[in-house]
């Protein structure tokens, strides 16, 4: 369960209350994104042009199909990203990735807005309802378990790179028919770095486990990737890892470095990366939140470039980028604007998703409402497994060419 | 336990005035649903430490609840009655620990997907209450002032982008002695309407000399309290079983004396400052966050007539490579980052001021400290305009009013 005390208070003095319903607000948000994208990037509106894009990618190379999922940083709002005033913060998404993508302007999260539980919901296709701050596995099978069980894939073919200790159980569920033995390997780069640099130096200001509960680090209790596996699996010595980390400016940069090592050394078919630098917003410093968005924008482009240049991935990989949810609106008096995601208002629930790469139409915008629970069934349709217990549905607009 | 079981003697552990208030209205509370009452008691239990505006609002709300007919109670609280509550929540001691109940109730609403229904119920209730018990207009038009950019010598990015749409942008001001002029103006307003907690000065650094009639909160003055809090948390986090929920409970139970507050003879302000540090996220480490949150809470709770907030530079967030280099140096400041923080903080100050009564007549000024740029918002100024008028900060306030 989520444990925030800032539920809407009947006793909060306010004279400024919006008359719009959450549904209307969500539609307005989507409309703003769609209009902006159409004018800024020259994209086509998918609902009217479905099947007629001249930019359809050529037939796929006969290589093993791969999927990479990036969760965009732990919540960013429209006004700092896709709204006109926010576009300066996402030059790579706008200039490089969106023109190559199918963009969904209205992804509405109806679940709990805590990062671990929301990411777990993304990974299971079911709105999970466990304690966001407890190190527990999801109750429902994850995409990794469906993938490995149905397609009989080895453990080395599904990986998660995640930001904080709280995510260490996300690789496999507690479902009796599935479970961690069918799950993904989970790497927690910050945990590894802490282990590799345990010399008493005070790094806690940066290497704090997460930003939702900055004073508290959950104990690890799963089968997380350990330091000695750096050498055996990623072909990376602890010294090299430490040296490289000294050149990087943030935990997300460290995650992307690990992702590149994974792609080169292991080349998993299903790879899930959770960013979280943006969530520094919880500390209330707007400039650091903006810095986080700009960094995440750049890192998404870096991963896309890696996908295009690594022989195991080039031409046969579909990339999904989506936030787990948004952040509170400036207009909701119960919140404090960008700082948190506690009110459950429309802005904090309404996000976007882009898909690009193998089998994806380029330059398309779709504004029908989706839910984040649709992601897992869609990946299932692309890779050829059945997400039988997921609540969502495959996104038909992405399966025309797959 | 459910509200219909409430008895006056159950409030015996409340502070004196809160006890009397709750006991006087126990029959009104008995008629209300459990999804509503603890959040009201969370306000009541702090009654002795509330600002005058809060006390007045709470007394009026309770009086209104007592005056509702049985049919009106059904109409007002029907949506709250629809909220499902677990037996585990019912068994909590929500009379003596209403804040703890609200925290766990919040978790329950999220996990049972009832948050939207609760939001709708809360919004409807607030609208009904506002219609029946309107908040009094302010004794004088409100004035908000934000001073941003302390220590920034040059800045080439556009400032005040969000506020410009609502007022007039000035770029030919005379900055000399500007802060003093603003503080003098605030002091003059305090003398004109000397109500308690009606005129505030929040400083994200060390407070400048100011008139003693102002209610003053500063990041610098709270440094010992921040250090004490940090020290206590380090100890508590080592205890077995300590987790986020236990930590929040611990913070909620702290008293001003636990952090060395309480020597100024103002228990209301002491409690306010304690909550800034224990309930605010980031207020302990970033002065810009502290200033913005202090302003937000002052506006929400004390509903001041005048609020001057001076943002100060916050400590720089060191990138990972610097931290890993092991060269720990003294605290450095992030001047341009702090200006960006403060620019948005000023916008939030204005938004929060506009949520109070008298918004149509209120004024707001944001000034780039030591520079010639400012935005003024007021009844006589059109939004999205620019002015080449020259003048000092005193004149800027006059244009805004």
Shape of chain B: globular
Q: What name is given to the CATH topology of the largest domain in chain B? A: Alkaline Phosphatase, subunit A
Derived from helix and strand composition plus strand pairing, the structural class of chain A reads alpha/beta
For this entry, what is the oligomeric state of its chains? heterodimer
Helix proportion range of chain B: 40-55%
Number of domains in the coordinates of chain A?
1
SSE arrangement of chain A, N to C: HEHEHEHHEEHHHHHEHEHEEH
Q: Would you identify the CATH architecture of the largest domain in chain B?
A: 3-Layer(aba) Sandwich
CATH class of the largest domain in chain B: Alpha Beta
What percent strand of chain A?
Answer: 5-15%
Q: Report how far the terminal alpha carbons of chain A are from each other.
A: 37 Å
List the strand order in the largest sheet of chain A. 1-9-3-8-7-2-6-4-5
Query: How far is it from the N-terminal to the C-terminal residue of chain B, by CA?
Result: 53 Å
Question: Summary?
Answer:
The complex is a heterodimer of chains A (402) and B (401). Chain A has 402 residues and is α/β, with parallel strands linked by helices. In chain A, 32% of the residues lie in helices and 11% in strands.
Structure description:
The complex is a heterodimer of chains A (402) and B (401). Chain A is globular. Residues 1-6, 12-19, 48-61 and 200-207 of chain A have low confidence and may be disordered. Chain A is built from 13 helices and 9 strands. Chain A has 402 residues and is of the alpha/beta class. Chain A has a single domain (22-49, 69-398), classed as Alkaline Phosphatase, subunit A. With 401 residues, chain B is of the alpha/beta class. Chain B has 2 domains: 3-132, no CATH class; 143-400, Alkaline Phosphatase, subunit A, CATH 3.40.720. Helix content of chain B is 48%, strand content 11%. Chain B is built from 17 helices and 12 strands. Chain B has helices spanning 16-24, 26-29, 37-44, 52-67, 70-81, 87-90, 98-111, 115-132, 161-164, 178-192, 223-237, 244-253, 267-279, 287-302, 320-324, 335-354, 393-400, and strands at 143-148, 168-170, 173-174, 199-203, 215-218, 306-310, 314-315, 333-334, 363-368, 374-377, 385-387, 391-392. In chain B, the strands form 3 sheets. Chain B has an 8-stranded mixed sheet with strand order 5-4-6-1-9-10-2-11, with helices on both faces. In chain B, helix 3 packs antiparallel against helix 7 (98-111), helix 5 (70-81) runs antiparallel to helix 8 and helix 14 (287-302) runs parallel beside helix 16 (335-354). Chain B is globular and about 65 Å long. In chain B, 46% of the residues are buried. The chains are: A alpha/beta (402), B alpha/beta (401). Chains A and B meet through helix 7, helix 10 and helix 11 of A and helix 3, helix 4, helix 7, helix 8 and helix 12 of B.
